[in-house]
Design a protein that fits this description.
The chain is 0% helix and 47% strand. It contains no helices and nine strands. The chain is globular, with a radius of gyration of 13 Å.
């Protein structure tokens, strides 16, 4: 069973930045790049560090862990650089009529 969560208007999310939200007890980093929004697990798989505090890499569609520099794909959650070797979860997110919606299965 999945649930859709309404997170507010796209305009409240700054392009090129990440924001941490907690939904159903899960820490999620929301990242906006241009008119697209991505949702990825907010805890680095290498260390217990919040990914939303890291740098958004627009050209690579990735988020870099602020502690050790692992880069995670925003589309797959797979680490693109070491030291992380395990992926983090990704979530379905979409913009509908200017509103950001997140679906958790």
């Amino acid at each position: 069973m999945s649930a859709v969560h309404h997170l507010g208007p796209l305009a409240q999310f700054e392009s090129g930045s990440a924001r941490r939200v907690e939904i159903d007890g899960q820490a999620i980093a929301l990242v906006r790049i241009g008119d697209s929004v991505y949702a990825i697990g907010d805890v680095c798989s290498h260390a217990d560090v919040s990914l939303s505090g890291g740098e958004v890499l627009d050209d690579e569609c990735a988020l870099e862990c602020p502690k050790h520099g692992s880069r995670f794909s925003l589309t797959s959650g797979v680490p693109q650089t070491l030291p992380a070797t395990q992926p983090v979860p990704v979530y379905d997110v979409r913009v509908v009529n200017g509103e950001v919606e997140l679906e958790i299965s």
